[in-house]
Design goal:
The protein is an alpha/beta fold. It contains nine helices and twelve strands.
């Protein structure tokens, strides 16, 4: 019997009203997430990568139901949750948690660390203060902090320590899925490595599944099992992380990979030309959203949107240049 994925997203969309005024006189719709489908297995790390403004954070909030989708399906442990109301979602909150990008803004400055870490427990059941304090101390030790930190306030900690507190808070209810929304982008590089290693250790310890969101494709391929690339609210490529830099096929993905700095000055990749700017999500072009910037665009790219098509095992690409056997049109 096939075990269903822990999280399965199908044709998910989130559109916001663009409003009216000088900058958006038409009062149209902002297509922040547009017809996205993917899955995350138990214990797996799926990395979602893309440039700023492509819809990654909106997708993160949809998955944990901080936002209600415009259309599409979100199945968690084979149960549809996309249309559930706040009360119906309560029992599921403990099974899915989110780590936010900014460790300075995600903690209430008026709460002690001990109170912040155990705050998610208040939505589950009544617990005595002593029991919450014991659990908070246990979670702080798990992420490398001390019991003495329980009564301190967020402003007394560094950025890396605050993110550890955020991780402890997310794990306090023993979730099965953790959505990490750019959890290391606000940290120094040396601290990033510490947090990533901690998250890997915690994944093994607690059997966590991660939806790991980042704009850094190097971090994603290092940390995750699979990589999903997002552009203008849509997924353009999904593949195994191992060897991703050499096997990626979409022109946008190749541009991202070519832009990653190399530690060895003797190893270089030829630059991949990218024209123009990302499209306005309130006025997406017809056809492939990347075609105005793509040096290999075909006529069909301007009027028909490609969908994700399997090209090699679990490798899927949304690109008209791909015929199922490789890239045509001179892309190599």
């Amino acid at each position: 019997m096939t075990v269903p994925p822990l999280l399965e997203v199908t044709n998910l969309s989130k559109h916001f009203p663009a409003g009216s005024g000088f900058f958006s006189p038409s009062g149209g719709r902002v297509k922040a997430v547009n017809d996205v489908s993917f899955s995350v297995d138990r214990g797996e790390s799926l990395g979602l990568v893309g440039e700023s403004g492509c819809g990654k954070s909106t997708l993160a909030r949809l998955v944990v139901r901080l936002l209600r989708p415009t259309s599409g399906s979100i199945r968690f442990d084979d149960r549809e949750i996309g249309s559930l109301g706040r009360q119906a979602m309560r029992p599921l909150r403990k099974r899915m948690q989110i780590i936010f990008q900014d460790p300075y803004a995600s903690l209430d400055p008026r709460m002690t660390v001990g109170t912040s870490v155990t705050e998610p427990l208040l939505n589950r059941a009544r617990r005595f203060r002593g029991e919450r304090r014991r659990l908070a101390a246990e979670m702080l030790a798990t992420v490398g902090l001390r019991r003495a930190d329980l009564d301190r306030y967020p402003h007394e900690f560094s950025g890396g320590q605050r993110q550890r507190i955020g991780i402890a808070r997310a794990l306090c209810v023993r979730p099965e899925l953790v959505v990490a929304d750019e959890p290391v982008s606000a940290l120094d590089v040396s601290i990033q490595a510490q947090i990533l290693n901690l998250m890997k250790d915690l994944q093994q310890q607690f059997g966590l599944a991660y939806l790991f969101i980042s704009h850094d494709i190097g971090v994603v391929t290092h940390f995750c099992d699979r990589v999903a690339v997002m552009y203008a609210g849509q997924l353009v490529e999904v593949a195994v992380a191992n060897g991703f830099h050499d096997r990626c096929r979409h022109p946008y993905t190749r541009a991202l990979v070519a832009a990653v700095p190399r530690p060895d000055p003797l190893v270089t990749l030829p630059p991949v030309p990218v024209e123009g700017e990302p499209p306005d999500p309130a006025a997406l072009p017809p056809g492939c959203p990347y075609h105005p910037r793509c040096p290999h665009r075909l006529d069909i790219c301007t009027n028909r949107r490609p969908t994700l098509i399997g090209v090699d095992g679990d490798h899927r690409v949304a690109c008209w240049l791909n015929d199922g056997n490789g890239l045509n049109g001179g892309v190599s």
